[in-house]
Amino acid sequence: MAVFVSSRLQKKLPHQQPAIPALVLLLFHLSLGFDPAHSTVNSSTSSTGDGGIYSSSQSWQKEKLNPSQNLTMSDVFIGSRCDIFSGHWVHDFSYPLYDWSKCPYIDGEFDCQKNGRPDSDYEKWRWKPRYCNIRRFNAVDMLQKLRGKTLMFVGDSLNRDQWQSMICLLHAALPQARTYYVSGDTLSTFKALDYGVSVSFYRAPYLVDMVTTTVQGQQKVVLRLDSAEINGRGWKGADILVFNSGHWWTHTGNLRGWDYMQEGNRFYTTMDQMVAYQKGMATWGNWIDSNIDPRRTKVFFRSFSPSHSSITNGGNCYSEKEPTAGSSYLGAYPPQFQVAERVVRSMRSPVSFLNITTLSLLRQDAHPSVYSNDLTVGQRKNPQRYADCSHWCLPGLPDIWNELLYSALFYV
Ligand SMILES: *[C@@H]1O[C@H](CO)[C@@H](O)[C@H](O)[C@H]1NC(C)=O
Ligand SMILES: *[C@@H]1O[C@H](CO)[C@@H](O)[C@H](O)[C@H]1NC(C)=O
Ligand SMILES: *[C@@H]1O[C@H](CO)[C@@H](O)[C@H](O)[C@H]1NC(C)=O
């Protein structure tokens, strides 16, 4: 057993803050259930798993694989009741699904190979759900299915990570095709013009509105716990929305994104982090319930993306080269996980919960660590303090989140 502590997100913000107290103890269970074989698909496997992606109603018709279709190792069988998020990692040298040097959209902070990361095995793992297999990402199939549609990722830099993964995955299938790309402060968009497909990222780390306003004669940043109207204007019209939020709610000190929190006419300078997060998530949920037509728009919430740093040996994700074997995770989940889960469960709209927290907890090897271009040479020599153990290298883990999203959209 190894003991890890979640560290807060450090990106885009000063690194000079005081050391962060350990917030959550995360225990990894090192089970022996690791499958060393490069699994072959046994198409007679029955799916007996419970759960899977839950949603409060089923509105989108999913394409089911025809059982008479021939199945190969990568052309995959998915059982309708299979929990695609419960499983283990399998070493697979057919990954990664794209070449970092050929994808022009990767931010320097995620571009680990370009930044000199010496190992690359972390790119070569496939997710194997326990009772089924997920379909390998097929960019042309994805583009054809998305034809004329808009897929929008909304949230913080972890969703920017996933968005860039998605556009790299798609770009790899159409290197010569006509594309459009613009990166903005709030909205960034990639388009595959021949398919009329738009894949964008809307930055809203708290999901709820954040405004600059005058409070007691001074310009202040106010986080409106009870409003998502301003941000929501940017979300209307998307056909598929993938949300996340979590890390920013626990930032304190220099890293805190707001001066006041506002609810109704009341302003707060402090509030219990998870209470605030619960309020913000509920506001987001109400906005979805009142503004989204489930026949038109499919909504996902991607569960909390865990950070890794260790208190046992003074290290952290630095120099980790392999995933944790097995599939179980026995420790307490980051508290954001349960808050988001409760809100999603209580919503009237059919929101699919992309439950990637556990499978990502097993991937301490997949963070940029010191191979982020945000770090100075000096900072790279002090991984205990500066390693980025929150974001993920590209190619890497977010590609698998997108494979799961692809399955969840069209094949589960
Ligand atoms: C598939 O699984 C069934 C049931 O476990 C087994 O009888 C069969 O031999 C397996 N087939 C292959 C190709 O592994
Ligand atoms: C499936 O396999 C059979 C036998 O190998 C072959 O005749 C058939 O054309 C294949 N079907 C498809 C859809 O590939
Ligand atoms: C998420 O997945 C983990 C791992 O399979 C599982 O233990 C947990 O119950 C799941 N949670 C939800 C809300 O589906």
Automatic annotation (TrEMBL):
Domain Trichome birefringence-like N-terminal: 81-133
Lineage: superkingdom: Eukaryota
One cellular component term from this protein's GO annotations in UniProt: Golgi apparatus
One Gene Ontology term of the molecular function aspect: O-acetyltransferase activity
Topology relative to the membrane: Single-pass membrane protein
Principal place of residence: membrane
Subcellular location: Membrane
Signal peptide: 1-33
Domain Trichome birefringence-like C-terminal: 136-407
Keyword NAD: no
InterPro entries for this protein: TBL (IPR029962), TBL_C (IPR026057), TBL_N (IPR025846)
Similarity comment: family membership: Belongs to the PC-esterase family. TBL subfamily.
PANTHER family with a match to the protein in the record: PROTEIN PMR5, PROTEIN TRICHOME BIREFRINGENCE-LIKE 9-RELATED
Annotated protein name in UniProt: Uncharacterized protein
Organism: Picea sitchensis (Sitka spruce)
